[in-house]
Amino acid sequence: MLDSLFRKKPLAKILKDVESNESHGAGGLQKVLGVRDLTALGIAAVIGAGIFSTIGQAAYDGGPGVIFLFIITAVTCGFTAMCYAEFASRVPVAGSAYTYSYVTFGEIAAWVIGWALILEYAIGNVVVSISWSSYFANLLEGVGLHLPAWLSTDPTTAMNSYEEAIAAGTSTEGLAWTTAPVIAGFRFICNLPAAIIIILITMLAYVGIKESRSSANFMVGLKLVVLAIIVLIGIFYIDADNWSPFLPNSFTGVLKGVSAVFFAYIGFDAISTTAEECANPQRDLPRGMIYSLIICTIIYVIVTLVITGMVNYSEFNNVADPLAYVFEKINLGKVGFFISVSAVIAATSVLLVFQIGQPRIWMSMSRDGLLPKRFSKIHPKYQTPAFSTIVTGFIVAIPSLFVESALMTDLTSIGTLFAFVLVCGGVLMLPREENTAGKKFNLPYINSQWIVPILFIVFLYGFRERIINSATNINHESHQEILFLIFIVLATVITIASFIKKLSLIPVLGMLCCLYLMIEIPARSWGVFFGWMAFGLVIYFSYGYWRSKLSTEKV
């Protein structure tokens, strides 16, 4: 059974299956995407809810120095992007990290990573749809329309707001909890705009990649123009005193924003799910990922410096719309309304990219027999994975009606980082001589034998006090510090392997950076993550293990 769990799908077979369309049922996908389209999809995914919402809390925790966290996260994603690019050049098919893991680690790892990617795409879109709903409600207020509070929030948030008002002795009039209709003894509270936008985006993803591409390109162009206008206006209101101190809470404060900042970068890897819709995937996929990552990092750093220069970092606590907030503070409310419009557009583009990505992963899993065949059926007219797209719409729309976004953000970050670790590790397992003919991208080999040990020693010295305190007081330490010690153990193993086997530097650094970012995510989210993984394994052993094509073909 152990051999069956780690059975690998040969790369040659993957390419042959795609070429023959034996699993498509009705033709293949349209090959219409070029490097500009892929770069636009990457920007569409990354420049979204993060820059219009989570950037505020990150700035409050880390001050202006939070730009260092953006750069660190970008470098981490850069290492991972180059590993994705190597895989995309060798395995130019849909499926993203799921397919890559199937080639290198085997079936059980592929299933786990496919299940984790649901957290990145489907659950991530729940968070983005909730952010979209918040900005949309503000837009309606701006034009004189009022959406009842009980139709634009979730029950948990509504109850918390009510309890906080009671505790503070303030009025509860107009709150969702007090105005919601009571049905069968329960207050009916839901986030209706969040569900509606998911349904509309799903319809767009259903009818074709060309339409999705055109919509994404338009929205990307528009929000880049809006961000440029924000920066050009904002620089005239910068007060350099707001940048002092630059690191008010030291680097510890900067690291508090890991989950929020990393969530802002989630999505650049969604480009790899469209491999079979690229005209030249081996050349264009690597370029699209790397170009979009560079552009987005520059935008994040500039915008963060501008808003922390306009308003002191200490004012961003619990500010859901920081870009609009800073202009309201300088009495430019009309600009704030304009920003709300752009935030709605930005969030819409993120939703579109994720709703495109998730069905294509399920399509790949279905082709391999791990999910029912219907998930891999291609619509004869629209040439999209129709059933998978519809299922994705339901899985995102229904939770967006009722769940709160805080826990979802952490879960999405864990799932994505987990996928990144496996992609970086998978590159190390690829034989470099395999399938090099015709490749358009080669991950440069840099010997890590001495570089990684030196970097690890520097890291140990810099965190020596934390290591000593965590190790000597392990019985009294928080779960967060236990996670930190686990990272030290894993990093030691990776460092020793790098020295002995002379591993390639870029994938090793990608693994180490992603592992470190993972342990900085609140420990409470890890319990839910492991529960989600356990549920996925139940499904695998109930269906996928027995129906896998590798299993049936072997028999």
TrEMBL record:
<feature type="transmembrane region" description="Helical">
    <location>
        <begin position="443"/>
        <end position="462"/>
    </location>
</feature>
<feature type="transmembrane region" description="Helical">
    <location>
        <begin position="382"/>
        <end position="402"/>
    </location>
</feature>
<feature type="transmembrane region" description="Helical">
    <location>
        <begin position="38"/>
        <end position="60"/>
    </location>
</feature>
<feature type="transmembrane region" description="Helical">
    <location>
        <begin position="529"/>
        <end position="546"/>
    </location>
</feature>
<dbReference type="Pfam" id="PF13906">
    <property type="entry name" value="AA_permease_C"/>
</dbReference>
<keyword id="KW-0472">Membrane</keyword>
<dbReference type="InterPro" id="IPR002293">
    <property type="entry name" value="AA/rel_permease1"/>
</dbReference>
<feature type="transmembrane region" description="Helical">
    <location>
        <begin position="335"/>
        <end position="357"/>
    </location>
</feature>
<feature type="domain" description="Cationic amino acid transporter C-terminal">
    <location>
        <begin position="505"/>
        <end position="548"/>
    </location>
</feature>
<keyword id="KW-1133">Transmembrane helix</keyword>
<feature type="transmembrane region" description="Helical">
    <location>
        <begin position="414"/>
        <end position="431"/>
    </location>
</feature>
<keyword id="KW-0813">Transport</keyword>
<protein>
    <submittedName>
        <fullName>APC family permease</fullName>
    </submittedName>
</protein>
<keyword id="KW-0812">Transmembrane</keyword>
<feature type="transmembrane region" description="Helical">
    <location>
        <begin position="220"/>
        <end position="238"/>
    </location>
</feature>
<feature type="transmembrane region" description="Helical">
    <location>
        <begin position="108"/>
        <end position="132"/>
    </location>
</feature>
<feature type="transmembrane region" description="Helical">
    <location>
        <begin position="184"/>
        <end position="208"/>
    </location>
</feature>
<feature type="transmembrane region" description="Helical">
    <location>
        <begin position="289"/>
        <end position="313"/>
    </location>
</feature>
<dbReference type="Pfam" id="PF13520">
    <property type="entry name" value="AA_permease_2"/>
</dbReference>
<feature type="transmembrane region" description="Helical">
    <location>
        <begin position="66"/>
        <end position="87"/>
    </location>
</feature>
<feature type="transmembrane region" description="Helical">
    <location>
        <begin position="250"/>
        <end position="268"/>
    </location>
</feature>
<dbReference type="InterPro" id="IPR029485">
    <property type="entry name" value="CAT_C"/>
</dbReference>
<feature type="transmembrane region" description="Helical">
    <location>
        <begin position="482"/>
        <end position="500"/>
    </location>
</feature>
<feature type="transmembrane region" description="Helical">
    <location>
        <begin position="505"/>
        <end position="523"/>
    </location>
</feature>
